[in-house]
Each structure stands twice: as structure tokens, then as C-alpha cells.
């Protein structure tokens, strides 16, 4: 019997080794695939949270971690910056020569009725079209932008002819099941419209519109709200009582979407491979600790010394991250701080103003050249207080923070460049005696 058993064991080993010899390549490939999938899921977890409409659920976890959207940091443009509401036309909110604009507004409102976005959605759409095109169906724009909403064919919004069709353009802006870009397999429109923005009906107009448009001037939409309200109330009639699928109702304050998921904790997100901490710091750049935002110390430091350009909470560090607007992994070349519009920004040390300019991503920005090949850049500003060529002292106010350029809201972005290359500001400043996280 022992001899038979030994023979069977030897035969089994031989068969197993033979099978491994024949299939080892497949096993290695399968193992690599599993590792690759796991790595992909970990790297893109933040993307999946955003793209699958789970921002509201993730926000609960962010709240658990101490984050909150600071509405005090959102400030609409001053009254004097708001355009005058035209009068004298056949419809309130329009002038006597605005027949074409009235027709375009009617087309948007009709599309909003089909999409079921209610009064709030109509106001967002009309305000957006007023900013983008003045409600004119234009055949020109930035790069290949066209039509009422300046939608770009190269970005998947449709052909040049389609985006200049008011009904097509408006349905694309609203998104959801009636969008020409809706995918039944995914259950959402791509490019995404207003209905793809989680909690859009509770957002300020400038934030809701920017979430769809990705404009270089994200705060510009708010100034058209007053006129948009007049136009919608004049043209929409009874359809403004409609509430969109998945929007926030006026009575309950909770989402009515049948796809709403249960609250997921931060621990559960981490256990599933989602870097919820990075998600919160990027998605909620207005998040701050309890208490008001501190400005600079206002103290001018001696030559050679360094000081923090702002005394506030760090909301997003230097390094690779999933960009909350462009939805791709890219280098975040500086450190972000919580800062309401108008917060004072100081020069971190003595230097000469190298540039005061504008970029589509960074908005209004100031660059200062310091000693030893060091340059600091200050982005997303609302006002520059210095001019190129001007010598500044450490601690001297050089600008006021804002929300210009591309971003999810008002904040301050600080960069340090050495010999032309961006480096992490936090360790650099620590070497110079400044802890940028002292107020976090």
C-alpha cells in the first residue's frame, strides 16, 4: 500500500510540475494584472468618487474628518460690478433691440423644461449664457468655442453646427437623461452637464456654472444672477415649479435621487483603497478649521529673514494629485491655503517683483525674484498691490487673495522655484525658519 501511495504522490507532483511548466507565463501575467488593477484602483480612487456621482457621500466622510465648505469664502462681485438689467423690450430683462436674445432665452428655458431642472436650473443656465455669449448665438470664441454656452467641439460637446443649435446646446448644458451626450451604459452625460454636478441646486451660481463650463473666469457668472432671475420669471411660467431628478428639494434639504447611497465613513473609504484624505483636501479647497481666516502678520522682517506669506490652514500640499477641475493626475506645483477673497498676502522675504500677470490656470498672479536663484509665485489673486520692478520687503503686503483662474473656489496658491524648477514650499520654508502648517 505504501508503495502505491508513494507512486500516486510522485505522479501528482509530476503532473503539477508539468502544469506549472506549461502555464507559468499565464500565472505571471495574471498576477501582474491583479497587481495592476489594484494599483489602478488605488491611484484613481479619487477620480471614481467624483465621476460616479458619489461626491455627496464622500462629503460626509470629509465632514467626519473636520472639513466643511466655508460659504463665507464665497463673495459675489460687488454691486457696482453687476451689469445693468436692460429695459424697454417686449420681455422684462431685455432691451428693445433684443429679439434674437429673447428667442435664445426661450430656447434655453424650453430645454430646461424638458430636462426638468426647475427654476434654479433655468437661472443658472441663463446666467451662464449671459456671461459666455450675452445670449447671442455667436460663431466665434476662445479657440473653437461656439454658440450660447461657448461649447468646444474639440472637447466633445458636438459638431460646430450642433453647438450653435440653441436646443442642442442647452440640453447639453443641462446634462442628465435628456442630454445628447447621455450614455445609457454609464447612466450619465459625457461631457457632463448641470445634472451631473452633485448638489448643484444648493451651490452658488458661480460654482454650479463653473462645474460645467471650466471657465478661466469662475467668479464671473454670479454678476448675471439678478438679470437671469428677471428673465426666467418673465419667460418660464409654471414650469419653474418642476424639480429635477436628483436635485435638492426646497423642503427637505436632502437629495431626492433614487440612486442615493448610504453614508460611507472615512475608515471605510480607506479600507476600500480610496485616499479620502487627498480627496477632501482637493475637492474642498474652501475647507478650514474652526475660526476666522488669518491674514499675514503684517510684520516686516529683516533682510535675509523669511516669513509666511499667509497665516492660514494648508488645504492641499505640493505633489502629484488628481486635479479637481481637469480630472487628471498632474503635479500640484505649490501649496494651497484657505483664504477668503481679499485676504492679505505678504512677500515671504526681500525681493524684486519680477512679474504681475494673468494665466488661464493661475488667474491673476505675482512673481517675486529673491536672492540665490529663488523665485516665489502667488496665484489666484483678486488684486495686486505691487508693480514689476518694484523692490519689496519680507512681510510687506503684495496682493489680496481671490478665486481668479481655475479652481474649485477662493484660495491662495504659493509656489517656490529654485533655478527655474518648482520645489515643495513646506520643507524649503522650514529650512528658513517658517512652519507653513503652524495655523493648520
TrEMBL record:
The chain crosses the membrane at residues 26-49. Gene3D superfamilies: Glucose Permease (Domain IIA) (2.70.70.10). It holds the Pfam family Peptidase_M23. The keyword Cell membrane does not apply. Residues 76-95 are annotated as: Disordered. Residues 331-425 form the M23ase beta-sheet core domain. Keywords: Membrane, Signal, Transmembrane, Transmembrane helix. The keyword Transmembrane helix applies. This is M23 family metallopeptidase. It comes from Isoptericola peretonis.
Amino acid at each position: 500500500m505504501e508503495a502505491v501511495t508513494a507512486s500516486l504522490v510522485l505522479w501528482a507532483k509530476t503532473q503539477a510540475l508539468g502544469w506549472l511548466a506549461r502555464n507559468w507565463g499565464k500565472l505571471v501575467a495574471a498576477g501582474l494584472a491583479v497587481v495592476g488593477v489594484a494599483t489602478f484602483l488605488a491611484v484613481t480612487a479619487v477620480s471614481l468618487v467624483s465621476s460616479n456621482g458619489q461626491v455627496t457621500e464622500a462629503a460626509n466622510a470629509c465632514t467626519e474628518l473636520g472639513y466643511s465648505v466655508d460659504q463665507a469664502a464665497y463673495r459675489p462681485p460687488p454691486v457696482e460690478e453687476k451689469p445693468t438689467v436692460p429695459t424697454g423690450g417686449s420681455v422684462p430683462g431685455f432691451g428693445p433691440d433684443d429679439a434674437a436674445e429673447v428667442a435664445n432665452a426661450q430656447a434655453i428655458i424650453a430645454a430646461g423644461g424638458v430636462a426638468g431642472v426647475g427654476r434654479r436650473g433655468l437661472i443658472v443656465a441663463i446666467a451662464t449664457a449671459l456671461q459666455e455669449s450675452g445670449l447671442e448665438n455667436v460663431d466665434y470664441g476662445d479657440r473653437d468655442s461656439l454658440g450660447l454656452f461657448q461649447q468646444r467641439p474639440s472637447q466633445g460637446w458636438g459638431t460646430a453646427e450642433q453647438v450653435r443649435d440653441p436646443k442642442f446646446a442647452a440640453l447639453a448644458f443641462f446634462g442628465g437623461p435628456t442630454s445628447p451626450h447621455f450614455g445609457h451604459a454609464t447612466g450619465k452625460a459625457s461631457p457632463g452637464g448641470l445634472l451631473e454636478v452633485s448638489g448643484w441646486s444648493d451651490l452658488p451660481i458661480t460654482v454650479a456654472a463653473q462645474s460645467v463650463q471650466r471657465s478661466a473666469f469662475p467668479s464671473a457668472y454670479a454678476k448675471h444672477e439678478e438679470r437671469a432671475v428677471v428673465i426666467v420669471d418673465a419667460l418660464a411660467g409654471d414650469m419653474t415649479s418642476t424639480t429635477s431628478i436628483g436635485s435638492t428639494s426646497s423642503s427637505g434639504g436632502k437629495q431626492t435621487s433614487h440612486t442615493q447611497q448610504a453614508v460611507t465613513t472615512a475608515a471605510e473609504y480607506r479600507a476600500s483603497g480610496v485616499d479620502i484624505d487627498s480627496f477632501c483636501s482637493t475637492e474642498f479647497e474652501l475647507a478650514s478649521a474652526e475660526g476666522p481666516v488669518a491674514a499675514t502678520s503684517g510684520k516686516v522682517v529683516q533682510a535675509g529673514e523669511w516669513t509666511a506669506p499667509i497665516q492660514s490652514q494648508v488645504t492641499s500640499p505640493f505633489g502629484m494629485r488628481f486635479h479637481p477641475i481637469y480630472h487628471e493626475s498632474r503635479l500640484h506645483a505649490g501649496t494651497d491655503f484657505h483664504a477668503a477673497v481679499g485676504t492679505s498676502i505678504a512677500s515671504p522675504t526681500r525681493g524684486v517683483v519680477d512679474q504681475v500677470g494673468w494665466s488661464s490656470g493661475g488667474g491673476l498672479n505675482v512673481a517675486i525674484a529673491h536672492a540665490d536663484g529663488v523665485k516665489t509665485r502667488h496665484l489666484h489673486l483678486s488684486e495686486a498691490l505691487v508693480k514689476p520692478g518694484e523692490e519689496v520687503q519680507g512681510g510687506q503686503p503684495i496682493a489680496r487673495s481671490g478665486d481668479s483662474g481655475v479652481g474649485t473656489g477662493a484660495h491662495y496658491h504659493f509656489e517656490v522655484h529654485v533655478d527655474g524648477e518648482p520645489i515643495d514650499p513646506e520643507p524649503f520654508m522650514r529650512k528658513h525658519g517658517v512652519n507653513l502648517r503652524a495655523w493648520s
